[in-house]
Structure formats: C-alpha cells, structure tokens
Amino acid sequence: MFFKKKWNPRGLHVYITGGSQGLGLALAILVAKKGAHVSIVARTQSKLEKALIELEAVRQSPDQIFRSYSFALDNAESSAAALKAASEGHGGQVPDAVITCAGASKPMFLLDMEEQDLTQGMINGYWVQAWTAFAAAKQMAREGKKGKIVLVSSTLGFMSFVGYSSYSPAKHALRGLAEALHSELMLYGIDTHIFFPPTMYTPGFDEENKTKPAITRTIESTDEGLTAEQAASALLIGVENGEAHITGDLITSLFRASTRGAAPRSNAALDVVYDFIALIGVPIWRRSVDKQVLAHREEHQQYLQKKGFF
Amino acid sequence: MIALWLPPILKTFLFLVVLYTATLSSKLFRKKWNPRGLHVYITGGSQGLGLALAILVAKKGAHVSIVARTQSKLEKALIELEAARQTPGQIFRAYPFALDNAESSAAALKAASEGHGGQVPDAVFACAGGSKPMFFLDMEERDLTQGMDNGYWVQAWTAFAAAKQMVRQGKKGKIVLVSSTLGLMSFVGYSSYSPAKHALRGLAEALHSELMLYGIDTHIFFPPTMYTPGFNEENRTKPAVTRMIESTDKGLTPEQAASALLTGVENGETQIVGDLITNLFRASTRGAAPRNNVVVDIIYDAIALIGVPIWRSSVDKHVLAHRQEHQEYLQKRSFF
C-alpha cells in the first residue's frame, strides 16, 4: 500500500452521476480543479446547466471537456444510454472513472410505509447506482479499459436504526455489490471502491428532513456530519489511495473497522486500533440508541392511534 | 516495542471486557423462547431449510403453516409434517402463494391467520429465496432484478406484512429473516445475490431497532452452503471459479441448518450462524449488531483479524489466476 502509485484524475475522463448538486457536484468541481475532463449526469436540465457554470469557474486548461447529460438513472436502459452519450463526447471511449453519487433517502416509520415507499427506497438507493455500475463494467471490459467504478453507500450501509428500513437495505445492498464486483472485476483489471459518508449537508438532506421522524433525528444528532466539499475530498483521497472501503469521518471509520469482514484493509494497524475502540464504543452507542427507542414507545403508540393505524 | 506494552494493555482490556460482560449481558438469565403451542409461519416451507425447520418445530409441539409456490410440493411436505406430529391438537397447514410481491405476501399471511381465528402467527420465518450465480458480464437486466426479487423481496414483503399485522394485534411476536454467509461478504459470481443478502441485513438492523417500539423481536440467520434442492439449482449456472472458491465451505444439511437457526432464536440471538467460518465473518462484520457472547466474539474477531485477510488474499489469487481463461470464455461468447 505504501508504494502503490497514487491515482491521479488529471487528463482522465471522470463520469459522475448525481452530479448537479450535493456530493456529486462538489466532487465534479474537485476533479475539475485537478485537471480532469468531467461528465455530470442527473435528471433536471436546469440544475445541470447551473452546475456547468460552476465547473467552468474552476477550469484549469482550455483542453478540459466539461459536459452534462440529462438522464433518469433508475432503470438499466437509461443508465446505459447516459454512459453512451458521455462516451460519445470522447470519441466513443468509456470514461476512466465512473462515480455514482446519485441517490436519495426518505426516512419514515415502517408502519407508515406503503408498498411503493419500500420499492422506491431500493430504486433511489440501490438501482440508481447499480445500473450505472452494470453498464460501466460491461463497457470497460469490452474496451479493455482498466478503469474505476466507485459506489456511494452511507454509514447506514454499515448499521441501521429506526426510520431507515427503506434506505438501509439499499445502502447495504451497494456494499454487497461492491464486494462481489471488487472480486469479479479483478478479472478485467477494473478497480471497485465504495464510499460511506455520514450525514452530508446537501439539498438531499433537506429533502430527507421533510419526512424524518423525531426519534430518528434525535439518534442522528451525535453525527456531526460533513459539508459536500469535505465529503467529496474524503472520497477523492480514498480513491487516489486505492482504498476499497472509504470513510470520511471517525464514527463511520469505527463502524467500517468493525464491519470490515473480508474487505481489504485500508491501513491494517490503524484498523486494528479502530476495531478495539469500536469493540467498546459501538455496543455503548447501540445500547443508547435502543434506550432512546424504548423510551419513545408510549409516544409512538399515541402517534399510531392518531393516524388511525389500529 | 509493541510487545512491551501489549501484555498490560491486554490484561486491562480483558478485565474491562469481563466486567462489561457481567454487567451488561442479561442473556444468561433470559428465558428461552419455546415454540410449543405457538403458531409458526414458514415461507419456503416446502423444501430445504424451510421444510427442515417446519419438521423441527412440529416435533417441539408447534402449530405450523408452510407457504411456497407449488401445491404438489406443499402436499408432500405436509405428509412429512404429519409424520412428526406430537399431539392431535397441532394444526399443520400449507398455503400456495407467490411471495415476490407485497399483495400476495400479505394475502398468504392473512390466509394462515384465518386458520387460527384471525390471529397473526407468533413467529414468522422467511426461508424463501433462490440464487443464480453467474458472471456479472453474462447477466442481462432481468438477472439483476430477479436476484433482488428472489433474494430480498421474497422475504421483505413477508416481514412488512407481518410487522404491520403483529402491531395491529398487539402481538409481541418474532420475525426471522434468512440471509447467507454471502450477506457478510462476497466474491465473483454472486453480484446478483450478495446485494440481496446484504440488503436483508440492512433491513434486519433497521427492524431490530424499530420493532422494539412494539415489542417484536427480529432475528437474522446466515447459513453457509446448504445441501438442498436450491443448491442443485444454483449449480447449473455457477461458474467454475466460483465453485472453486466455495469449496473450502464444508456446508450443512438442511437439518443441521434448521437446528442452528432454531437454537439461535430460542437463545434470543439477533444474528445467528451455524458454522465456524460464517461465525468468523459475523464477528468481523458485527458492526452495531448486538453481541451473542462478548468474550467468544472477541476471540472470533481476533482469529478473523488474521484469518479473513488470508482467505481474502487466496480468493483474490484464484480470481487473478483465472483471468486468461476468462478472456477466452468471453471471446467464445462473442462478448467483445
């Protein structure tokens, strides 16, 4: 690990989904500053146009190609079409790095959910990234491109608690996909990375808070959170350093070390220290979360009564 | 230099751990769960793990409802259940329903409840599931979506329906999901299966926290290879390199797996395993899940600390060694 050459985005084509706001846009700006070509993909044309303006402001050289593509990413066909469109801007070549920042969360009580809340949770958390990874892996293998695929999970892909029963399954699923791809895409010389950000102060976060139960907010309050720029920076550093599982804050690092399973270590010695700390720290956190939930039972029963659940 | 301060650190650490176990672990004194006289609802109950579990709880005096798709398989399964009957009072029923959508999963649960005066079952075991290992690049869109349907949704919809019904009726029941060792890690061949099995883990952790609001317990089982009809089905598509990597897993019979699962539920374990290798993965991916036995988990974790990276390294070597052969395979299939 010490002597591995660092990855450098300069002169490479970096493809970023969810690139019109939040983490994706912050990352796009970051790699643009480092001299990369950037393609950003999202649904809304107007947001993409605003984002391109911000990218132009950090242009380093006249050769850099900044493009935006308006596509839905929740289905296989559109995700593949988006990638193809971005490749056309580069002589038909698939991008060198595909970073899937697209995704959203809608925290709510399980009992308040309808069928579509559960399915949408999987679509907006897992499929919006998986379809892109699927298209990218196939294209990279076809072209013999030894590229990178980077998925974006969440601290909630390492553990979960009340309010996230439609989101955590999706974020855990990304981890399962990353572990399978990490092994499988070795067959083609393609690297797989996965990032686990904590709370990020983004437009997505504001959207989340519209439905978030109070108890969920209380439990989350110990998470200081990151700005989109801080998160993007952690993500990029992790990719540059070749880390399979990337974290950007201490708390998530503790969860990562204690859920590492078979994932390659970032820093074996440091991980052992984290693991020791997590050994004591995480169960204490768990107990405090459980206490808060149990304390909330009475109030919750009244809530259900009011909503005519019974 | 590390060796100098390691023993005192280790001693202090072990002391803290013992103290911690003594004060926090109430599991030693918790009353064991007993299925006798309870209504146990098992999906995927016509073969494999589900049927083995059904027979096991029937022997322990439970009422059993098994759910699966194929009527004929269910009928054969009922005959086996009858052979395990302990008392004339036990109610054994079978319900043919698809479980890959919300509506049918809820209807299945309702049908089973009707056999018990409308009461929701006391314990819901979601053993339904299938796997189709193949190379990622060989997959079509539907292989990925089917992987999620057959690995995740076939259980999630049942858990969803069960949670709602148990809360409505104030039933302090149990919901048990069945993941896999491949829900704790993954390797080549399982890119449609592992996401689903990991997703179940995410669901279990969220439900474990959330269903505390209603006094409902959540458990999740991580079996290794099980020698079942499902396993035979898997092997039709399984790539050779996947089979090679798996060969270190001795596997369990469905009876052994069912026994481990039931024991875990009886002992109130949140995450249940039935073999040593999976236990090492569980201990090293425990995250925030409640511990089964703090001291033993620490030992497993220490072993896993060395053992799992060695395993990982050997798996990666297998895959890298396979590259040439794989390129030829892709050529033959006109992938390029």
From TrEMBL, chain A:
It comes from the Eukaryota. It comes from Leucogyrophana mollusca. This is NAD(P)-binding protein.
From TrEMBL, chain B:
It comes from the Eukaryota. This is NAD(P)-binding protein. It comes from Leucogyrophana mollusca.
